[in-house]
Structures are given as structure tokens and as C-alpha cells.
């Protein structure tokens, strides 16, 4: 076997797929396309959160939107869809 084992990781800066030696895992590597430096981490490893941050960000945005929507309703109680109070 010549060379060693590679895995594919996307460059966080230019988004291109890079072949990175597994021995560089956890080390700073430089993208061969844009020369950006980033830490090599195996996407299939347990320590690597695959898109978790993005999902939590989306969830947080959802929460924020929900809060804003509720606040908007509280501020303008003009449109009450409840049953009319007839005497
Ligand atoms: Zn790059």
C-alpha cells in the first residue's frame, strides 16, 4: 500500500472536496484550492457534529420567529378570532 488512507472533506471556505490523509485528522491543514487553513476532522467520526450546528441554528431561528409572531399578536390584539362576546 502506497501513501496511506485518505478521506474526503469539504473545504469550509471554498466548499470543494479535498482528499485529506487520515494522519492529518485533528491537525491544521491547508486547502489545495484556496489555501484556506482549517482543522481536518473526519465527518464519520463521533466527535464531528454533522450539520448539528446548522440544525440548531435553524431551530433557534424558528424559535425566534415564533417569539416575534407571538409578540406581534400581543402588541396588536385587533384581530381576535375568538367567539364574540354578546350580552
Ligand atoms: Zn478551499
Q: What can you see in these coordinates?
A:
This protein has 87 residues and is α+β, with helices and mostly antiparallel strands. The protein folds into two domains: 1-45, Rubrerythrin, domain 2; 47-76. Helix content is 28%, strand content 18%. The chain is built from one helix and four strands, in the order ββββα. The longest helix is centred in the last third of the chain and has 24 residues, at 52-75. The mean pLDDT is 78. Bound molecules: zinc ion. Zinc ion is lined by residues 11, 13-14, 16, 31, 33-34, 36. Zinc ion binds next to loops.
Strand content is 15-25%
Structural class: alpha+beta
The succession of helices and strands, N to C, reads: EEEEH
Helix content: 25-40%
Bound molecules: zinc ion
Overall, the morphology is rod-shaped
Amino acid at each position: 500500500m502506497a501513501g496511506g488512507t485518505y478521506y474526503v472533506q469539504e473545504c469550509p471556505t471554498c466548499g470543494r472536496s479535498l482528499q485529506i490523509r487520515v494522519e492529518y485528522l485533528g491537525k491544521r491543514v491547508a486547502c489545495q484550492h484556496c489555501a484556506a487553513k482549517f482543522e481536518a476532522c473526519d465527518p464519520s467520526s463521533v466527535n464531528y457534529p454533522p450539520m448539528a450546528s446548522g440544525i440548531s441554528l435553524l431551530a433557534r431561528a424558528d424559535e425566534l420567529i415564533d417569539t416575534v409572531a407571538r409578540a406581534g399578536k400581543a402588541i396588536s390584539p385587533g384581530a381576535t378570532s375568538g367567539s364574540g362576546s354578546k350580552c
